Amino acid sequence: MIHQERHMRKITSILALSFLLAGVIVSGLMCISSYSNLYHLQTASATKDKNTIVSTDSTSSTANTTQLSAKEVKPGVYNWIDANNASNPTLKVFADTKNIIKIQNPTDTKHQLIIDTGADELPSSDDINPNGSGQLSFSPNMTGTFTYHCAYHPFTMKGTIQIVSSGGSKP
């Protein structure tokens, strides 16, 4: 009888702890849910055409093309430079449109352009070898503001990319 009483107290204690833990989990989920309603996390998906990683002259006339170049601004410090010689420029691309970022790398180290979309697979140029070129081709399916960076120099080669409606004027 004493053994059954101890066993019942253990079961009661386990059940009480289980309910307490369930209550904590539900409260935590409610807090997370209400917190996430205050801040909207925006993600975008983009598809990368593996056939366009190497720069070619056969681009479609409907594609929006942007030119970037890697530049060593001081020993060991690199920036992205656009056609207007702006460092780490804000890039404007279009939703529901094929966008191509052509990249020249006249430096002595490799670079890789990555667009931070929040998606599982990030659009990337893959490695662009020293004194080489490459490109990133992607077609985002939504508008928004995101960032881009170099995989090897993320603190000095970074910028903003604006994805705007394709109904607007092209840059």
Q: Quick one: overall form?
A: elongated
By secondary-structure content and strand pairing, the structural class works out as: alpha/beta
Element-level helix/strand string: HEEEEEEEE
Q: Beta fraction of the residues?
A: 25-35%
What is the CATH architecture annotation of the largest domain? Sandwich
Low-confidence stretches: 33-60
- Averaged pLDDT, please? 79
Major beta sheet summary: 4 strands, mixed
Number of strands: 8
What's the alpha carbon Rg, rounded to whole Å?
Answer: 25 Å
Helix content: 10-25%
Query: What's the helix count?
Result: 1
CATH class of the largest domain: Mainly Beta
CATH homologous superfamily descriptor of the largest domain: Cupredoxins -  blue copper proteins
CATH structural fold name of the largest domain: Immunoglobulin-like
